[in-house]
Amino acid sequence: MLNNVAVQWAIRRVLDYGGWIGTFVGGLLWFYSNLTPSQQSLIGGLVEGNWQDITLGSLIPFLVLVWSQIISFRATVKPQAVVEENGKLVTNTLAPAKEKEVKDAVQHVSSRKSLIEILTGK
Fold first, then answer.
1. 7: which residues sit within 8 A by CB, 6+ positions away?
2. Helix (H, G, I), strand (E, B), or coil: what is residue 89?
3. Considering the chain, what is the average pLDDT of its residues?
4. Residue 78 region by backbone torsions, left for phi larger than 0, else alpha for psi between -120 and 50, else beta
């Protein structure tokens, strides 16, 4: 069974996925520990299925908190200004006056030496 390529691949990924799962679970526990006691009881009631014990005083602030996290996530993953190799801006988030500055920055980045070239003196 250990000679199977798929099993070997899964074994090599145990630490990687274990780290992801541990980070996710740790983040959830940290997030839960920073909630107020009424919000913690709200989550406990939701998990246990005690919907009748949930009060509006704990539900509304929790919904506001969840909504703010959704808005924050959406703002974080929103595409930023993308510059092509020729210096043209794909999205119109920069002013046209900045086009020359963007072209110079792209030219500078594309002509940079790699870390190995810098360290070896080439």
1. 1
2. strand
3. 79
4. beta
DSSP letter for each residue of 59-86: HHHHHHHHHHHHHHHHHHHS----B-TT
Q: Select the more confidently predicted residue: 29 or 90.
A: 29
Contacts of 60 (CB under 8 A, 6+ apart): none
**CB–CB of 53/45 below 8 Å?**
yes
Residue range 1-15: mean pLDDT, rounded? 77
What are the tokens at 117? Answer: 């070239």
User: Do 83 and 90 meet the contact criterion of CB atoms below 8 Å apart?
Assistant: yes
Distance between CA atoms of residues 4 and 1, nearest Å = 6
Q: Alpha-carbon distance 95 to 9, whole Å?
A: 49
**Given pLDDT bands bounded at 50, 70 and 90, which one contains residue 8?**
confident
Domain ranges of the chain: 1-34, 37-78, 79-122
Task: State yes or no: pLDDT of 92 exceeds 60.
Answer: no
- In contact, 61 and 39? CB cutoff 8 Å: yes
